[in-house]
């Protein structure tokens, strides 16, 4: 691939195969081997001296949508990246780039969203930076948040439980997956992407679906107290399809899921059909996918069902060694491969 003759497209920032290739072809050259879990892992964050460090930038359009705004989204996304690796987030940085002419009233609404979501997650905004660009040079506002997290005692308990059948890594990573692990989704998928689409001007449809944007760190602590969690990841850009393909690729195992078990709101299903989208490729901002040792499946589900953010949790499949990639068993009993999407079908959802 001759990268010098190519240009960056929206697909390169939408998760999926285009973004995966861009990162591997361009950015992985920055990796110098530093960290217990480094850049080469292509995970939700890095682990350095037993501290999780992650960063993310947000360009969502529109900046105010059903169920939240760019401020809530920025805290949620970074908190969840730390939580999905098995860490407890403690502090965030906040970088804001504003377009000249941006309304101060709107900025205060966004910072209110940041503050309320940080309190909800139990984290602190401790440092930041602000820049202003000329009118027309950016689309309103861009936010970057970086987060640090520590190893909670619950993860040690989780690791001890896993050692009954395996020798896992010290954090929640795909290499922990083993044949027979159950795949659990903590709630209905597609809510965030459909909320964003229905909030955009000119889309031509209206549904009563709010974004699921929510910090999941307390939910993750609850399930880690139960034990048996091998890995966790939030299905953001590229959705469930990209996440499961990432797990299959990194673990060298296959993943088998059942369509009838995948939780989704009827309004989301109707919108997906109307727009010709693939439900499995839609981004989410308040759901997690867990790989769980089979003997802990029911206990993990019970813990999720007692949590407001996990009340719609379902076990949708399992990890297998006799297949490759990701296979979906359809409602009518057929089977089809689920490939890694080219990119999220809904650009700028986060």
UniProtKB/TrEMBL annotation:
> Domain named PurM-like C-terminal: which ranges?
178-322
Per the UniProt record, one Pfam family is AIRS
User: Ranges for the PurM-like N-terminal domain?
Assistant: 43-150
GO BP annotations listed: protein maturation
What family is this? Belongs to the HypE family.
**What name has this protein been given in UniProt?**
Hydrogenase expression protein
């Amino acid at each position: 691939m001759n990268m010098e003759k190519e240009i960056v497209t929206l697909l390169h920032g939408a998760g999926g195969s285009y973004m995966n290739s861009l990162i591997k072809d361009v950015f992985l050259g920055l990796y110098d081997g530093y960290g217990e879990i480094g850049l080469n892992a292509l995970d939700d964050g890095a682990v350095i001296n037993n501290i999780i460090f992650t960063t993310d930038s947000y360009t969502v359009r529109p900046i105010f949508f059903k169920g939240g705004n760019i401020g809530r989204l920025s805290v949620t996304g970074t908190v969840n990246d730390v939580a999905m690796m098995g860490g407890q987030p403690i502090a965030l940085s906040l970088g804001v780039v504003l377009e000249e002419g941006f309304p101060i009233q709107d900025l205060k609404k966004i910072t209110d969203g940041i503050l309320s979501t940080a309190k909800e997650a139990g984290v602190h905004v401790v440092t930041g930076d602000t820049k202003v660009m000329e009118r027309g040079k950016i689309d309103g506002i861009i936010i970057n948040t970086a987060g640090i997290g520590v190893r909670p005692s619950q993860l040690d308990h989780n690791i001890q439980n896993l050692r009954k059948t395996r020798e896992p890594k010290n954090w929640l990573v795909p290499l922990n997956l083993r044949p027979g692990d159950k795949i659990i989704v903590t709630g209905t998928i597609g809510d965030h992407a459909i909320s964003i689409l229905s909030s955009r001007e000119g889309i031509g449809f209206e549904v009563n679906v709010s974004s699921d944007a929510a910090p999941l760190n307390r939910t993750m602590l609850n399930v880690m107290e139960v034990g048996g969690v091998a890995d966790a990841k939030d299905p953001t850009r590229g959705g469930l399809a990209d996440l499961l393909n990432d797990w299959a690729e990194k673990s060298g195992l296959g993943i088998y899921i059942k369509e009838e078990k995948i939780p989704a709101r009827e309004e989301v299903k109707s919108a997906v059909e109307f727009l010709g989208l693939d439900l499995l490729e839609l981004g989410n901002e308040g759901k997690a996918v867990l790989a769980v040792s089979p003997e802990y499946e029911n206990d993990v589900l019970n813990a999720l069902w007692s949590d407001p953010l996990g009340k719609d949790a379902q076990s949708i499949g399992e990890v297998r060694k006799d297949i490759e990639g990701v296979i979906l068993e359809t409602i009518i009993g057929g089977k089809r491969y689920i490939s890694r999407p080219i990119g999220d079908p809904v650009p700028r959802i986060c």
